[in-house]
Write a structure and sequence with these properties.
Layout (H helix, E strand, L loop, with lengths): L7 H8 L3 H9 L6 E3 L2 E3 L2 H13 L21 H5 L6 E5 L3 H13 L4 E5 L3 H9 L5 E4 L2 E2 L4 E2 L1 H7 L5 E16 L19 E4 L4 H13 L12 E2 L2 H9 L5 E5 H4 L5 E16 L6 H10 L2 H8 L12 E4 L1
Parallel strand pairs: 3-4, 3-5, 9-10, 9-11
Antiparallel strand pairs: 1-2, 5-12, 6-7, 8-11, 8-12, 8-13
Helix pairs in contact: 1-2, 5-11
């Protein structure tokens, strides 16, 4: 696939935007990219999907997109569907590349299905699911009081709605620190030291909620933490801030830290990354295909090649509520 991949400059030409805008899209997690050596490459299929999303989503309720905001997904109108201008489609919320690979498998299996990726944090994804703006939402929200992932938030954010939670993977959350860990950052309390600056994730994402819950449990005031107000919208972005020396630490996942030079990773907590669907979707072919894919040898092989994923429970139905 590498010989068919695109450079950021080529993507900029195709989308008729500046090269810097492409880098910002990659930084915010809106356009998947990978590295060959020190150079970024983009899969042409991801560029095409980005174009399709742009045609099918409203930018925002006002028609404008503010800096750092994600597009708000909307359903195709009944007129468009009657005209046959849009085939079957589903919307999946969440950031992780697992979801991109799942989307590709679904589209191949259920042609002409179109899978749109709404790349937002866990809180926003569950909200979109509640409002009928999405079909599936991936989440990794830790509740400090119960010590459980996802279920407490699903019950709170989707009240009265029967849903099913399906396990996707476990990932390691921890601190991205500069190579050699010069500040000797080891645990949550180190973030409150006066000589430590952090880079934070955006409000509502699972990583930010994990940090806030840990601070609450330890009774640490976020105002004590230098850099708490600085936000980036992806794991790669916060790791890059640390690598550039603009912060001493950032909370992220191990896989992202392996993609950024000049970063060490301090593991802290294994998290559960899971998919939430409403029960009225359980009889749909898209759900049945997703379950078959998650449990397939090919899907697991695709994910294992990325590293830092525990797939021992992938495809297991955790609960129906």
């Amino acid at each position: 696939m590498d010989d068919k991949s695109l450079t950021p400059e080529e993507v900029a030409g195709q989308l008729q935007i500046t090269k810097n805008t492409v880098y910002e899209m990659i930084k915010r997690g809106e356009l998947p990219a990978y590295r060959i050596g020190r150079k970024l490459r983009i899969d042409p299929r991801d560029v095409q999907q980005f174009r399709q999303q742009g045609k099918s989503f409203e930018i925002a309720r006002t028609g404008q997109l503010s800096a750092g905001m994600d597009p708000v997904p909307t359903r195709f109108s009944p007129i468009e569907k009657m005209a046959g201008s849009s085939p079957a489609e589903i919307i999946i919320c969440g950031h992780d590349i697992i979801l991109d690979i799942l989307a590709q498998h679904l589209e191949r299996r259920l042609q002409p299905l179109r899978v749109f990726r709404y790349k937002v944090g866990s809180f926003s994804g569950l909200s979109a699911l509640y409002q009928g703006q999405a079909d599936m939402a991936a989440t990794h929200l830790w509740d400090g009081d119960s010590g459980r992932y996802n279920l407490p938030y699903v019950r709170y954010l989707l009240p009265g709605i029967p849903v099913t939670i399906i396990h996707l993977a476990q990932r390691m959350e921890g601190f991205d620190v500069q190579a050699g860990n010069p500040k000797q950052i080891q645990d949550w309390t180190d973030l409150a030291r006066p000589d430590v600056r952090i880079c934070n994730r955006e409000t509502g994402c699972g990583t930010r909620i994990l940090l806030d819950e840990q601070l609450r449990q330890l009774q640490i005031d976020s105002q004590q933490i230098q850099g708490y107000e600085r936000e980036e919208s992806s794991h790669l972005a916060v790791a890059s801030v640390v690598a550039r020396g603009e912060a001493d630490a950032a909370l992220g996942i191990e896989k992202a830290s392996l993609q950024v030079r000049g970063i060490d990773f301090i593991p802290l907590q294994k998290e559960r990354y899971e998919m939430v669907v409403k029960n009225d979707m359980l009889g749909r072919p898209e759900f049945q295909a997703m379950m078959d894919i998650l449990r397939s040898t090919q899907f697991r092989a695709d994910i294992q090649g990325l590293g830092d994923y525990d797939l021992s429970e992938t495809g297991r139905i955790m609960t129906g509520i």
